[in-house]
């Protein structure tokens, strides 16, 4: 459950950069969004593996 909370926190942190990129045209914010989304992808994959492992053990 800790990793799921990290996902929620990461998405919330990216919200300000998304606003800067999409509404204000700040390209540096776009770079931060791309990095954050890559981190999100890796975290989501870790959660998927954790869930699959727990499911297989049950």
From TrEMBL:
GO terms for molecular function: DNA binding; structural constituent of chromatin. It comes from the Bacteria. Might have a role analogous to that of eukaryotic histone proteins. Belongs to the histone H1/H5 family. HCT subfamily. This is Histone H1.
């Amino acid at each position: 459950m800790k990793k799921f909370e990290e996902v929620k926190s990461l998405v919330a942190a990216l919200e300000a950069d998304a606003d800067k990129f999409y509404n204000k045209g700040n390209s540096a914010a776009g770079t931060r969004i791309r990095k954050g989304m890559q981190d999100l992808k890796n975290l989501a994959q870790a959660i998927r593996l954790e869930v699959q492992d727990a499911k297989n053990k049950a």
